[in-house]
Design a protein that fits this description.
20 strands; single chain; UDP N-Acetylglucosamine Acyltransferase, domain 1; 15% helix; 1 helix; 8-stranded mixed β-sheet; binds coenzyme A; 12-stranded parallel β-sheet; alpha/beta
């Protein structure tokens, strides 16, 4: 992994954070307790700031970037799934950003909402809490079901425990 200071902007990373090899954390980025960032994810705060809350997962190949005037805020217990992009947007606690979804500048994803895989959330779009949005551009589809909430809670726990195992494996290399 690479943690890069840029023009005096230095990442603030809780000691419990897992950064997989091949992940990049650049500039004004704050990663809270047990945040886990997987291979080839890039989190870049060289213009504006990025704050990511406790236990949030950023899976392989994600891009999180804060352009000037659009800081990124990602809450607690969020999953940003494989290859997703969060560009200058705000994501509420417990939300899920599906595989290869894109969330654009100043969009706001409510607590517990789900952006379906491949969806494109337009700039400034506000997604209500617990709403599923799908498509390009993303539109509301339904409420998140209790079954999905339970399933994703298990996924979160499994990912967090795997992150701790991988952290130990890579520390020995
Ligand atoms: C949103 C999601 C949960 C829907 O899954 P589902 O409930 O099994 O979907 P359904 O089979 O009930 O599909 C309902 C309809 O939505 C459509 N649909 C489902 N997922 C879609 C998506 N991502 N984008 C566009 N349309 C989608 C289906 O084609 C179907 O359309 P129809 O009613 O015209 O036939 C799923 O597609 C998704 O995006 N999951 C996120 C996966 C992910 O990233 N997980 C992270 C793991 S770490």
């Amino acid at each position: 992994m690479s943690v890069i200071e840029f023009e005096g902007k230095k990442p603030r990373i809780h000691p419990s954070v897992f950064l997989a090899p091949g992940s990049w954390v650049i500039g004004d980025v704050t990663l809270d307790e047990d945040v886990n960032v997987w291979t080839n994810a890039v989190i870049r705060g060289d213009d504006d700031k990025v704050v990511i809350g406790a236990r949030t997962t950023v899976l392989e190949g994600c891009l999180i970037e804060a352009p000037t005037g659009s800081p990124v805020s990602i809450g607690k217990d969020v999953i940003v799934s494989h290859g997703a992009t969060v560009h200058g947007a705000k994501i509420g606690d417990n939300a899920i950003i599906g595989i290869q979804a894109v969330v654009l500048d100043k969009a706001e994803i409510g607590e517990g909402a789900m952006v379906g895989s491949g969806a494109l959330v337009s700039p400034r779009k506000v997604v209500p809490p617990r709403m599923v949005v799908l498509g390009m551009p993303a539109e509301p589809k339904s409420e998140v079901t209790e079954a999905t909430v339970q399933y994703m809670a298990k996924e979160r726990e499994r990912t967090l425990s795997k992150a701790k195992v991988y952290k130990q494996i890579y520390a020995k290399k």
